[in-house]
Protein backbone atom coordinates (compact mmCIF):
# COMPACT_ATOMS: atom_id res chain seq x y z
CA UNK A 1 0.00 0.00 0.00
CA UNK A 2 1.39 3.42 -0.83
CA UNK A 3 1.56 6.19 1.71
CA UNK A 4 2.02 9.36 -0.33
CA UNK A 5 1.40 11.53 2.75
CA UNK A 6 4.51 10.05 4.38
CA UNK A 7 6.99 12.18 2.44
CA UNK A 8 5.19 15.25 3.73
CA UNK A 9 6.13 14.65 7.36
CA UNK A 10 8.23 17.62 8.52
CA UNK A 11 11.79 17.28 7.15
CA UNK A 12 13.45 16.78 10.56
CA UNK A 13 11.16 13.85 11.39
CA UNK A 14 12.49 11.62 8.59
CA UNK A 15 15.98 11.14 10.06
CA UNK A 16 14.71 10.62 13.59
CA UNK A 17 14.69 7.38 15.55
CA UNK A 18 12.42 7.03 18.59
CA UNK A 19 14.09 7.18 22.01
CA UNK A 20 15.01 3.75 23.32
CA UNK A 21 13.96 3.64 26.96
CA UNK A 22 15.39 1.21 29.51
CA UNK A 23 13.74 -2.22 29.31
CA UNK A 24 10.91 -2.54 31.84
CA UNK A 25 11.05 -5.37 34.39
CA UNK A 26 7.70 -6.80 33.25
CA UNK A 27 9.00 -7.25 29.70
CA UNK A 28 12.07 -9.18 30.82
CA UNK A 29 9.96 -11.34 33.10
CA UNK A 30 7.81 -12.31 30.12
CA UNK A 31 10.80 -12.93 27.88
CA UNK A 32 12.91 -15.03 30.22
CA UNK A 33 10.27 -16.42 32.54
CA UNK A 34 12.37 -15.47 35.57
CA UNK A 35 11.58 -13.35 38.59
CA UNK A 36 13.68 -11.39 41.08
CA UNK A 37 14.78 -9.07 38.30
CA UNK A 38 16.51 -5.81 39.15
CA UNK A 39 16.54 -2.76 36.93
CA UNK A 40 19.64 -0.61 37.06
CA UNK A 41 18.94 0.96 33.68
CA UNK A 42 17.00 4.20 34.03
CA UNK A 43 18.58 6.06 36.97
CA UNK A 44 15.47 5.69 39.09
CA UNK A 45 15.52 6.08 42.88
CA UNK A 46 16.01 2.60 44.38
CA UNK A 47 14.33 3.78 47.63
CA UNK A 48 11.15 4.64 45.75
CA UNK A 49 9.20 7.84 46.29
CA UNK A 50 8.88 9.69 49.57
CA UNK A 51 6.03 8.20 51.66
CA UNK A 52 4.70 11.76 52.00
CA UNK A 53 4.50 12.04 48.21
CA UNK A 54 2.61 8.75 47.92
CA UNK A 55 0.15 9.87 50.56
CA UNK A 56 -0.45 13.20 48.84
CA UNK A 57 -1.00 11.49 45.48
CA UNK A 58 -3.45 9.00 46.99
CA UNK A 59 -5.44 11.82 48.55
CA UNK A 60 -6.03 13.57 45.20
CA UNK A 61 -6.90 10.32 43.45
CA UNK A 62 -10.41 10.84 44.80
CA UNK A 63 -10.61 14.05 42.78
CA UNK A 64 -9.64 12.35 39.54
CA UNK A 65 -12.87 13.46 37.89
CA UNK A 66 -11.76 17.08 38.16
CA UNK A 67 -9.24 18.78 35.91
CA UNK A 68 -5.93 19.59 37.55
CA UNK A 69 -5.00 23.16 38.46
CA UNK A 70 -3.80 24.32 35.03
CA UNK A 71 -1.56 26.86 36.71
CA UNK A 72 -0.16 24.39 39.29
CA UNK A 73 -0.55 27.05 41.97
CA UNK A 74 0.38 24.94 45.00
CA UNK A 75 3.35 23.23 43.35
CA UNK A 76 4.69 26.52 42.03
CA UNK A 77 4.30 28.15 45.42
CA UNK A 78 6.28 25.29 47.00
CA UNK A 79 8.97 25.54 44.32
CA UNK A 80 9.14 29.33 44.59
CA UNK A 81 9.85 29.01 48.30
CA UNK A 82 12.32 26.16 47.79
CA UNK A 83 14.37 28.09 45.24
CA UNK A 84 13.70 31.59 46.56
CA UNK A 85 12.37 32.79 43.20
CA UNK A 86 9.09 34.32 42.09
CA UNK A 87 6.34 31.89 41.05
CA UNK A 88 6.34 33.76 37.73
CA UNK A 89 9.79 32.35 37.03
CA UNK A 90 8.62 28.73 37.16
CA UNK A 91 7.22 26.58 34.35
CA UNK A 92 6.08 23.09 35.30
CA UNK A 93 5.70 20.26 32.84
CA UNK A 94 4.96 16.55 32.54
CA UNK A 95 8.58 15.58 33.06
CA UNK A 96 11.46 17.72 31.98
CA UNK A 97 11.08 16.15 28.53
CA UNK A 98 8.01 18.35 28.30
CA UNK A 99 10.04 21.46 29.19
CA UNK A 100 12.52 20.57 26.42
CA UNK A 101 9.65 20.39 23.96
CA UNK A 102 8.32 23.77 25.04
CA UNK A 103 11.71 25.40 24.56
CA UNK A 104 12.12 23.75 21.15
CA UNK A 105 8.64 24.80 20.09
CA UNK A 106 9.24 28.37 21.18
CA UNK A 107 12.71 28.81 19.65
CA UNK A 108 13.54 26.12 17.07
CA UNK A 109 12.39 25.48 13.52
CA UNK A 110 13.68 25.20 9.94
CA UNK A 111 16.68 27.47 9.29
CA UNK A 112 17.60 27.53 12.99
CA UNK A 113 20.17 25.46 14.83
CA UNK A 114 20.78 24.01 18.28
CA UNK A 115 24.15 23.01 19.73
CA UNK A 116 24.75 19.93 21.88
CA UNK A 117 27.76 17.91 22.99
CA UNK A 118 28.42 14.45 21.61
CA UNK A 119 27.18 11.82 24.10
CA UNK A 120 24.63 14.26 25.52
CA UNK A 121 21.11 13.33 26.62
CA UNK A 122 19.25 11.92 23.57
CA UNK A 123 16.08 13.97 24.03
CA UNK A 124 17.89 17.20 22.96
CA UNK A 125 18.38 15.62 19.55
CA UNK A 126 14.76 14.46 19.37
CA UNK A 127 13.22 17.85 20.19
CA UNK A 128 15.63 19.68 17.86
CA UNK A 129 15.13 17.42 14.86
CA UNK A 130 11.46 17.12 15.76
CA UNK A 131 11.25 20.88 15.22
CA UNK A 132 13.10 20.46 11.88
CA UNK A 133 15.99 22.57 13.15
CA UNK A 134 19.65 21.72 12.52
CA UNK A 135 21.46 19.80 15.27
CA UNK A 136 25.13 20.76 15.70
CA UNK A 137 27.21 18.32 17.68
CA UNK A 138 30.40 19.52 19.37
CA UNK A 139 33.09 16.93 20.05
CA UNK A 140 33.34 15.94 23.71
CA UNK A 141 36.50 15.93 25.82
CA UNK A 142 38.77 13.00 24.86
CA UNK A 143 38.89 9.77 26.88
CA UNK A 144 42.11 10.76 28.66
CA UNK A 145 40.65 14.08 29.91
CA UNK A 146 39.73 14.43 33.61
CA UNK A 147 36.11 14.80 32.44
CA UNK A 148 36.40 12.05 29.84
CA UNK A 149 33.66 12.26 27.17
CA UNK A 150 32.11 15.23 29.00
CA UNK A 151 31.01 18.56 27.52
CA UNK A 152 33.74 20.73 25.98
CA UNK A 153 32.13 24.16 26.29
CA UNK A 154 34.78 25.81 24.10
CA UNK A 155 33.97 23.39 21.28
CA UNK A 156 30.27 24.05 21.82
CA UNK A 157 30.73 27.83 21.76
CA UNK A 158 32.66 27.51 18.48
CA UNK A 159 29.54 26.03 16.84
CA UNK A 160 27.25 28.88 17.91
CA UNK A 161 26.45 31.33 15.13
CA UNK A 162 23.59 33.68 14.33
CA UNK A 163 21.27 30.78 13.45
CA UNK A 164 21.80 29.17 16.87
CA UNK A 165 18.73 29.64 19.01
CA UNK A 166 19.37 27.05 21.76
CA UNK A 167 22.40 25.44 23.41
CA UNK A 168 21.60 22.36 25.48
CA UNK A 169 23.97 21.70 28.39
CA UNK A 170 23.45 18.79 30.75
CA UNK A 171 25.20 19.39 34.05
CA UNK A 172 25.93 16.74 35.11
CA UNK A 173 25.51 14.90 31.85
CA UNK A 174 23.70 11.67 31.11
CA UNK A 175 24.98 9.18 29.89
CA UNK A 176 28.54 10.14 30.89
CA UNK A 177 28.04 11.31 34.50
CA UNK A 178 30.56 14.10 33.96
CA UNK A 179 30.01 17.64 35.17
CA UNK A 180 31.11 21.22 34.54
CA UNK A 181 32.75 23.45 37.12
CA UNK A 182 31.49 26.92 38.00
CA UNK A 183 34.27 28.83 36.18
CA UNK A 184 33.71 26.95 32.94
CA UNK A 185 29.97 27.54 32.96
CA UNK A 186 30.20 31.22 33.89
CA UNK A 187 32.82 31.85 31.23
CA UNK A 188 30.56 30.20 28.66
CA UNK A 189 27.49 32.19 29.72
CA UNK A 190 29.48 35.41 29.59
CA UNK A 191 30.55 34.80 26.00
CA UNK A 192 27.56 33.14 24.33
CA UNK A 193 25.43 35.69 22.43
CA UNK A 194 22.45 36.94 24.48
CA UNK A 195 20.30 36.14 21.44
CA UNK A 196 20.86 32.41 22.12
CA UNK A 197 18.92 30.54 24.80
CA UNK A 198 21.14 28.42 27.08
CA UNK A 199 19.33 25.52 28.68
CA UNK A 200 21.18 24.02 31.64
CA UNK A 201 19.66 20.66 32.52
CA UNK A 202 20.28 19.89 36.18
CA UNK A 203 18.39 16.59 36.42
CA UNK A 204 21.03 15.17 38.78
CA UNK A 205 21.61 18.35 40.80
CA UNK A 206 20.97 16.81 44.23
CA UNK A 207 23.52 14.03 43.78
CA UNK A 208 26.49 16.24 42.98
CA UNK A 209 29.13 16.33 45.68
CA UNK A 210 31.66 18.91 44.46
CA UNK A 211 32.03 22.42 45.94
CA UNK A 212 32.99 23.71 42.45
CA UNK A 213 29.71 22.50 40.95
CA UNK A 214 27.62 25.53 39.94
CA UNK A 215 23.99 26.00 40.87
CA UNK A 216 22.77 27.60 37.66
CA UNK A 217 19.51 28.62 39.34
CA UNK A 218 21.51 31.18 41.33
CA UNK A 219 22.66 32.79 38.05
CA UNK A 220 19.22 33.63 36.64
CA UNK A 221 19.54 37.29 37.60
CA UNK A 222 22.66 37.67 35.47
CA UNK A 223 21.54 35.81 32.34
CA UNK A 224 17.98 36.44 31.09
CA UNK A 225 18.64 33.93 28.25
CA UNK A 226 19.15 31.09 30.76
CA UNK A 227 16.72 28.20 31.28
CA UNK A 228 17.53 26.00 34.28
CA UNK A 229 15.78 22.66 34.20
CA UNK A 230 15.12 20.32 37.14
CA UNK A 231 13.12 17.13 37.51
CA UNK A 232 11.32 15.07 40.13
CA UNK A 233 12.26 11.87 38.28
CA UNK A 234 15.64 11.18 39.83
CA UNK A 235 16.50 12.02 43.46
CA UNK A 236 12.82 12.71 44.26
CA UNK A 237 11.82 9.26 43.01
CA UNK A 238 8.76 10.27 40.96
CA UNK A 239 9.79 9.20 37.44
CA UNK A 240 6.49 7.40 36.87
CA UNK A 241 4.39 10.46 37.64
CA UNK A 242 6.23 12.78 35.20
CA UNK A 243 7.05 16.15 36.72
CA UNK A 244 9.80 18.53 35.69
CA UNK A 245 10.20 22.28 35.72
CA UNK A 246 12.14 25.22 34.41
CA UNK A 247 13.45 28.19 36.37
CA UNK A 248 13.91 31.24 34.15
CA UNK A 249 13.53 34.99 33.95
CA UNK A 250 9.93 36.22 33.94
CA UNK A 251 10.25 37.16 30.25
CA UNK A 252 11.42 33.66 29.32
CA UNK A 253 8.65 32.16 31.41
CA UNK A 254 6.13 34.27 29.55
CA UNK A 255 7.34 33.00 26.16
CA UNK A 256 7.56 29.29 26.91
CA UNK A 257 4.18 29.28 28.66
CA UNK A 258 2.46 30.52 25.51
CA UNK A 259 2.94 27.08 23.95
CA UNK A 260 2.28 25.05 27.09
CA UNK A 261 -1.01 23.17 27.02
CA UNK A 262 -2.85 23.51 30.33
CA UNK A 263 -3.38 20.68 32.78
CA UNK A 264 0.21 19.42 32.72
CA UNK A 265 1.38 17.92 34.94
CA UNK A 266 -1.63 15.90 36.10
CA UNK A 267 -3.12 16.38 39.57
CA UNK A 268 -1.43 13.33 41.17
CA UNK A 269 1.92 14.49 39.89
CA UNK A 270 1.40 18.05 41.14
CA UNK A 271 0.42 16.90 44.63
CA UNK A 272 3.16 14.28 44.90
CA UNK A 273 5.86 16.69 43.75
CA UNK A 274 4.91 19.38 46.26
CA UNK A 275 4.94 16.82 49.06
CA UNK A 276 8.24 15.30 47.91
CA UNK A 277 9.86 18.72 48.01
CA UNK A 278 8.85 18.93 51.63
CA UNK A 279 10.47 15.61 52.55
CA UNK A 280 14.12 16.57 52.90
CA UNK A 281 14.76 13.47 55.03
CA UNK A 282 13.96 11.22 52.12
CA UNK A 283 16.14 13.30 49.83
CA UNK A 284 19.08 13.11 52.25
CA UNK A 285 18.66 9.35 52.60
CA UNK A 286 18.58 9.04 48.83
CA UNK A 287 21.70 11.10 48.34
CA UNK A 288 23.70 9.36 51.04
CA UNK A 289 22.70 5.89 49.84
CA UNK A 290 23.77 6.94 46.37
CA UNK A 291 27.13 8.29 47.48
CA UNK A 292 28.02 4.95 49.08
CA UNK A 293 26.60 2.89 46.22
CA UNK A 294 28.44 4.89 43.58
CA UNK A 295 31.74 4.28 45.39
CA UNK A 296 31.00 0.55 45.68
CA UNK A 297 30.10 0.19 42.01
CA UNK A 298 32.98 2.30 40.77
CA UNK A 299 35.58 0.53 42.91
CA UNK A 300 34.12 -2.90 42.12
CA UNK A 301 34.18 -2.31 38.37
CA UNK A 302 37.70 -0.92 38.48
CA UNK A 303 38.83 -3.94 40.47
CA UNK A 304 37.80 -5.99 37.41
CA UNK A 305 40.22 -3.93 35.33
CA UNK A 306 37.48 -1.87 33.69
CA UNK A 307 37.59 1.88 33.05
CA UNK A 308 34.78 3.98 34.49
CA UNK A 309 33.96 7.61 33.73
CA UNK A 310 33.92 10.09 36.62
CA UNK A 311 30.31 10.41 37.81
CA UNK A 312 28.46 12.99 39.90
CA UNK A 313 25.16 11.20 39.24
CA UNK A 314 23.27 8.11 40.38
CA UNK A 315 24.87 5.93 37.74
CA UNK A 316 28.29 4.87 36.59
CA UNK A 317 29.29 4.55 32.96
CA UNK A 318 31.85 1.86 32.30
CA UNK A 319 33.93 0.76 29.32
CA UNK A 320 33.62 -3.01 29.31
CA UNK A 321 36.31 -3.43 26.63
CA UNK A 322 34.04 -5.43 24.34
CA UNK A 323 30.62 -4.90 22.74
CA UNK A 324 28.43 -3.57 25.52
CA UNK A 325 25.36 -5.26 23.98
CA UNK A 326 26.92 -8.67 24.67
CA UNK A 327 27.58 -7.87 28.29
CA UNK A 328 24.10 -6.34 28.55
CA UNK A 329 22.62 -9.62 27.23
CA UNK A 330 24.74 -11.64 29.65
CA UNK A 331 23.52 -9.56 32.57
CA UNK A 332 19.91 -9.84 31.37
CA UNK A 333 20.17 -13.62 31.62
CA UNK A 334 21.12 -13.12 35.25
CA UNK A 335 18.07 -10.95 35.75
CA UNK A 336 19.82 -7.58 35.78
CA UNK A 337 18.83 -4.80 33.38
CA UNK A 338 21.48 -2.17 32.62
CA UNK A 339 21.68 0.31 29.77
CA UNK A 340 23.79 -0.39 26.68
CA UNK A 341 25.05 2.85 25.10
CA UNK A 342 25.60 1.86 21.46
CA UNK A 343 22.69 4.14 20.57
CA UNK A 344 24.74 7.01 22.01
CA UNK A 345 27.80 6.12 19.92
CA UNK A 346 29.48 4.34 22.85
CA UNK A 347 29.33 0.68 21.74
CA UNK A 348 31.73 -0.59 24.44
CA UNK A 349 30.10 1.28 27.32
CA UNK A 350 27.30 0.40 29.71
CA UNK A 351 25.46 2.76 32.02
CA UNK A 352 24.65 1.20 35.37
CA UNK A 353 22.33 2.93 37.84
CA UNK A 354 23.17 2.80 41.53
CA UNK A 355 20.81 0.44 43.34
CA UNK A 356 20.33 -0.69 46.92
CA UNK A 357 23.51 -2.14 48.52
CA UNK A 358 22.49 -5.75 47.87
CA UNK A 359 21.59 -4.89 44.26
CA UNK A 360 24.98 -3.29 43.69
CA UNK A 361 26.69 -6.41 45.05
CA UNK A 362 24.56 -8.61 42.84
CA UNK A 363 25.47 -6.52 39.80
CA UNK A 364 29.18 -6.79 40.58
CA UNK A 365 29.01 -10.56 41.06
CA UNK A 366 27.05 -10.99 37.82
CA UNK A 367 29.46 -8.74 35.95
CA UNK A 368 32.43 -10.81 37.14
CA UNK A 369 30.71 -13.93 35.85
CA UNK A 370 29.73 -12.45 32.50
CA UNK A 371 33.23 -11.10 31.87
CA UNK A 372 34.95 -14.37 32.86
C1 LIG B 1 16.52 11.65 33.51
C2 LIG B 1 16.90 12.92 32.87
C3 LIG B 1 15.99 13.94 32.75
C4 LIG B 1 14.62 13.82 33.35
O1 LIG B 1 13.66 13.56 32.44
P1 LIG B 1 12.13 13.58 32.93
O2 LIG B 1 11.41 13.82 31.66
O3 LIG B 1 11.99 14.71 33.89
O4 LIG B 1 11.86 12.25 33.56
C5 LIG B 1 16.37 15.12 32.15
N1 LIG B 1 17.62 15.29 31.71
C6 LIG B 1 18.54 14.34 31.85
C7 LIG B 1 19.93 14.60 31.40
C8 LIG B 1 18.21 13.11 32.40
O5 LIG B 1 19.12 12.15 32.51
Task: Describe this protein's structure.
This protein has 372 residues and is of the alpha/beta class. The chain contains 13 helices and 13 strands. The strands form three sheets. Strands 2-8-7-6-5-3-4 form a seven-stranded mixed beta sheet, sandwiched between helices. A four-stranded antiparallel beta sheet has the order 9-10-13-12, with helices on one face. Helix 3 packs antiparallel against helix 10, helix 5 packs across helix 9 and helix 11 packs parallel to helix 13. The chain is globular. Pyridoxal-5'-phosphate binds next to helix 5.
Helix amount: 25-40%
Low-confidence stretches: none
Strand content: 5-15%
Q: Assign the structural class, choosing from mainly alpha, mainly beta, alpha/beta, alpha+beta, or little secondary structure.
A: alpha/beta
**End-to-end separation:** 50 Å
Shape: globular
Output the strand order for the largest sheet.
2-8-7-6-5-3-4
Order of helices and strands: HHEHHEHEHEHEHEEEHHHEEHEEEH
Could you say which small molecules are bound to this protein? pyridoxal-5'-phosphate
Count of DSSP H/I helices = 13
| Major sheet summary line | 7 strands, mixed
The tally of beta strands, per DSSP, is 13
Features of this protein?
binds pyridoxal-5'-phosphate; alpha/beta; 38% helix
In terms of topology, how is this protein built?
Elements: H1 11-14, H2 25-32, E1 38-39, H3 51-61, H4 73-83, E2 90-93, H5 96-107, E3 113-117, H6 122-130, E4 134-138, H7 153-158, E5 164-170, H8 182-191, E6 197-201, E7 226-231, E8 244-248, H9 250-258, H10 267-277, H11 280-303, E9 307-308, E10 315-319, H12 324-333, E11 336-337, E12 339-340, E13 349-353, H13 357-371
Parallel strand pairs: 1-11, 3-4, 3-5, 5-6, 6-7
Antiparallel strand pairs: 2-8, 7-8, 9-10, 10-13, 12-13
The structure holds pyridoxal-5'-phosphate.
The site of pyridoxal-5'-phosphate has 14 residues, from helix 5.
